[in-house]
Each structure stands twice: as C-alpha cells, then as structure tokens.
Task: inverse folding
C-alpha cells in the first residue's frame, strides 16, 4: 500500500459534537472523501521506480524556490516512501513539503503510512517548536459566562490567548477596544454569519476582532477553503478581514501564506479546535474563555471581555 498524504488542514483534530452552529472539523479516519492517494506510477504490473535521494536539488524545485524567495529557510529531512521531505520555516511559522519524483512539484501536508502512523510528525519531532503544545490551566467552572453555549472552555492563566497571539491574523476595529480572537474558515457559512453579527459591535467600538484564518472545509469544497485562507493571509494585517468581507480574495496567494496557514492549523490542532467559528478571549479576573460556534448571546459574551 502506498502512503497517504492529507491536507494540513485536516490533521489530527478530534471530532466532537457541535455545541453551537459551526462548520465542523472532519475526522480523516472516518471520511473517505478526505483521503487523497498518491497517483499511480506507470501501468499495473510495472515496477515502481525508485527515487535516488541525490537526483533532486531541493532548492531548484519551482514551488520551493518561491517559498525560499519569500524568506523561508529550507531544511531537508531525508526521503520517506520515495518522496524527499523538506521542512520550510519562516520565523515561527513552518510547513513540511514532499517533493514529487520529477522534482517539479511539491505537496504540502502530512504523510500517513499504511498502519495509520503519522510519518510527518515523527520526522519533525526533533525540531524545536515544530510540534506545538498548549497547557491549559485548571478549569474554573464558576466563572462560566451566562448564556454561553455548551462546550465553553474556562481556564485560568493565559494559555489560550497566548496561543492565539502566536498565529497569523488580521484585525478589524479600534485597537483600544477589548479584543476577541476568532478562528474562521473563510468559506464557512457560520463564520460569515458570526462576522455579520459582530460587525455592528465592531463599528460601535465595543470590540476589536482578531481573525485567524484556518481551513476545515476542504473535504467539502475541494480545496477552496485552503486557497481562500492563504489569500487572506497574503493580505496586510489591517486589510485582511475587510478583503474577506468584500469578497476580494482573488489572485494567487503569497508563498509565505502557505507557511502561515500551516502554523495557524498547528495552533488550532493544539487547541483541539472543533470547527469554525471558534472564539477565544480573556476576562477581567484573569480567566479565559473558548467558545465553539456562533454565540447565542453576543451581548453577554462581549460584556465579559477584558479591555
């Protein structure tokens, strides 16, 4: 059996029941639509050609050349299942790419072998910071916000907000207003609905949104979510959300956006994101909240956010 490469947007995130309307992250072990096998090589009965690790010059692969030109550092991690592995890092952002045998194309994502082992995770395990960890403090249920949907997380400390701060995001609203972090898939109807509901609060100076693009719907929209998220991340911080609202996500993504989206997805994985939209915020008493889905009571949620 050949290894399977999955989109980075679909990696290792658990699936759970939705607490509120949202676009749910799918489980790659449960949906065959998400499994994209490598294309067959040659005809049935033909010997599968072996790849000579020295036959490829990684920096000359066209896609990687663009990524390196955008400021990323490339590190080769060897050959796995016939594909050369390249680790790209741009600051704190990173992505793993697998180079096709002809050296002319790359696949960004995660490789799983026939036994279900995450090959990519093992390859990058020794690289500091490549596998994110988020430690959430003890639950403080007495501080739950009235009216929140079931599934709201409440934690003491700053793990949730600190994780959100390390992502690539766009802002909308007054920088002096209390900040609400919002994970969205730009193609998710519930993310759009939440954005529409929050717009009057942003315009009134009651809240500033920090919008974190991720991709969870590729299994439904055939990759449109990933492309849209990368186009968002190609925009400047202050213009990113407006470009999404104004349907101006066109053209080709900036090469650096590939790495930014991969980093955002790694953070979403570490936070066990269940879908989009998902909100993270800090309260005045130092506790934090994490709410999945379109909030049923925005006034109550926004009243709890620390300025």
Result:
């Amino acid at each position: 059996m050949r290894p399977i490469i999955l989109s980075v947007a679909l990696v290792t995130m658990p699936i759970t029941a939705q607490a509120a309307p949202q676009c749910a992250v799918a489980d790659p072990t449960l949906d065959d639509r998400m499994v994209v096998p490598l294309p067959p090589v040659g005809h049935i009965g033909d010997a599968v050609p072996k790849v000579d690790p020295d036959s490829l010059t990684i920096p000359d692969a066209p896609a990687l050349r663009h990524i390196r030109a955008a400021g990323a550092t490339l590190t080769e991690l060897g050959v796995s299942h016939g594909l050369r592995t390249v680790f790209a890092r741009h600051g704190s952002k990173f992505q793993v790419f697998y180079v096709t045998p002809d050296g002319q194309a790359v696949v960004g994502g995660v490789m799983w072998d026939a036994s279900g082992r995450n090959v990519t995770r093992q390859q990058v395990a020794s690289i500091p910071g490549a596998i994110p960890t988020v430690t959430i403090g003890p639950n403080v249920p007495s501080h739950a916000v009235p009216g929140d949907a079931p599934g709201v997380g409440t934690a003491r400390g700053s793990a949730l907000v600190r994780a959100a701060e390390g992502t690539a995001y766009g802002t909308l609203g007054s920088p002096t207003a209390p900040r609400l972090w919002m994970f969205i898939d730009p193609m998710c109807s519930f993310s759009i609905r939440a954005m529409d509901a929050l717009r009057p609060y942003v315009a009134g100076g009651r809240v500033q949104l920090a919008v974190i693009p991720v991709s969870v719907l590729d299994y439904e929209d055939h990759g449109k979510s990933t492309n849209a998220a990368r186009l968002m991340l190609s925009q400047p911080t202050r213009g990113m959300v407006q470009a999404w609202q104004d349907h101006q996500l066109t053209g080709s993504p900036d090469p650096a956006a590939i790495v930014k989206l991969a980093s955002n997805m790694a953070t979403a994985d570490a936070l066990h994101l269940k879908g989009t939209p998902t909100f993270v915020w800090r309260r005045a008493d130092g506790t934090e909240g994490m709410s999945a889905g379109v909030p049923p009571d925005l006034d109550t949620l926004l009243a709890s956010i620390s300025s």
